[in-house]
Specification:
The protein has 394 residues and is an alpha/beta fold. The chain is 41% helix and 14% strand. It is built from 12 helices and 15 strands. Strands 2-10-9-8-7-3-4 form a 7-stranded mixed β-sheet, sandwiched between helices. A 4-stranded antiparallel β-sheet has the order 11-12-15-14. The chain has a two-stranded parallel sheet with strand order 1-13. Helix 7 links the parallel strand 7 and strand 8. It starts with 17 loop residues before the first helix and ends with a helix. The structure holds pyridoxal-5'-phosphate. Pyridoxal-5'-phosphate binds next to helix 4.
Length: 394
């Protein structure tokens, strides 16, 4: 029976998540993976989770295990409202939607907003998971130029002037894959541009609180509140397996996000939401976050100093003040995918950067490096091996 014939027209266009495919190769125990984008298991607050579990069962009893409202568990929405106020985002508890990870929000946004052929503007490069969420709804992607400071505002202006754009998707802080952060001045320009064009921006902010140096920068949401869907997650500051993401969207969009979520999963796990509510409201997040930062800062330092020490001339990389990734650019034409397979033979993996572009011809000479999973000594050794593989390929 050829069940392939039964697939919907759009299914074949979805493609596989290449990073997941790459991660299959790197699951061998001897492999050092700088490829993933996942938090260090040591960052999960297991003792706190044990304590929270007891609190949740005592406080909410069977309510924590019952079906709940699609919009989210009320105590979590209240806790998130206070949490967002600290980031200067004014969002009443009743305006916040909880989702199964920020990925759940991205999928719902695609479902609510994208009709076939709609133009969606994305940075080049951009978060692969967002492309995966949007692509089934068959948009036409419009690429926007970036530099070391992220999206170039003039390019956004040109794109918006060129015709109707359904929405703009941005990761302004410690971007995945580049680690780049938009400076405040650019955020102000972008806010002014989207307001002028009455455009909708989807601001995805999973890494903003993972800052190791420098000062916090206001989310674009605070500068153009009516034009921005702000998305964030507890995946990087609590535990990704709990699948707690959330968003604050303009009212006309919010109600449709709720309707499509009813069809997706009715609601996000009530028990996990109750854990998250207590994690935030009980002050556990505030106390635990500095520990995650202290865990990652030396790892990032180790990777930056190994790159400075070993990588050859002609290569440059981002120096983010936080987040989970560094972005390396080689000399023009240097094929990082070819290099990937050579590096894997020497038990070091990374992600070739070309997969983060909407056009496959771009980013051949780029790579994304993650530093959260390995220890400092291993990071140093792995970067040294990468530099040896590069030297040979050069
Ligand atoms: C930019 C960005 N958005 C969204 C996500 C999805 O995160 P989650 O669904 O775990 O909240 C990730 C995960 O790595 C990400 O890097």
């Amino acid at each position: 029976m050829a069940f392939e014939n039964l697939l919907a027209d759009r299914t074949g266009k979805m493609g596989v998540n290449i990073i997941r495919e790459i991660l299959k190769v790197v699951s061998q125990p001897s492999m050092v993976s700088l490829a993933g984008g996942i938090p260090a298991p040591e960052s999960f607050p297991l003792e706190i989770i044990r304590e929270l579990t007891e609190i949740v069962v005592d406080k909410y009893a069977s309510m924590a295990f019952q079906y709940g409202p699609t919009e989210g568990f009320w105590p979590l929405r209240e806790a998130l409202s206070d949490y967002l106020k600290k980031r200067k985002i004014n969002a009443g508890a009743g305006e916040i939607l909880v989702a199964s990870g920020s990925q759940g929000v991205l999928d719902a946004i695609g479902k609510v907003l994208i009709s076939k052929g709609d133009r969606v503007a994305v940075e080049a490069p951009t978060y692969l998971g967002a492309l995966q969420a949007f692509t089934p709804y068959e948009p036409d992607y419009v690429r926007m130029d970036t530099d070391d400071d992220g999206l170039i505002p003039g390019c956004l202006e040109n794109v918006l002037a060129s015709g109707k754009i359904k929405f703009i998707y941005l990761v302004p802080t410690f971007q995945n894959p580049t680690g780049r952060t938009l400076p405040l001045e650019r955020r102000k320009e972008i806010a002014a541009i989207i307001t002028k064009h009455n455009a909708l921006l989807v601001e995805d902010d999973p890494y903003g609180t993972l800052r190791y140096r420098g000062r916090d920068i206001l989310p674009i949401k605070t500068l153009a509140p009516d034009n921005v869907v702000y998305i964030s997650t507890l995946s990087k500051v609590f535990a990704p397996g709990l699948r707690i993401g959330f968003c604050h969207a303009p009212e006309q969009i919010r109600k449709w996000l709720v309707i499509v979520k009813q069809g997706i999963d009715l609601h996000t796990s009530t028990f996990n939401q109750a854990l998250a509510a207590e994690y935030i409201a009980g002050g556990f997040l505030e106390r635990h976050l500095p520990k995650i930062i202290d865990l990652y800062r030396p790892k990032q330092d180790a990777m930056l100093s190994a790159l400075d020490t070993y990588f050859p001339e002609g290569f440059k990389w981002s120096r983010p003040e936080g987040g989970m990734f560094l972005w390396v650019e080689g000399p023009e034409g240097f094929d990082m995918e070819e290099m990937y397979w050579k590096a894997v033979k020497r038990n070091v993996a990374f992600v070739p950067g070309k997969y983060f572009y909407t056009s496959q011809e771009e980013g051949i000479e780029t790579m994304r490096l993650n530093y959260t999973m390995a220890d400092e000594e291993t990071i140093d050794r792995a970067v040294k091996i990468l530099s040896e593989v590069i030297e040979k390929q050069l």
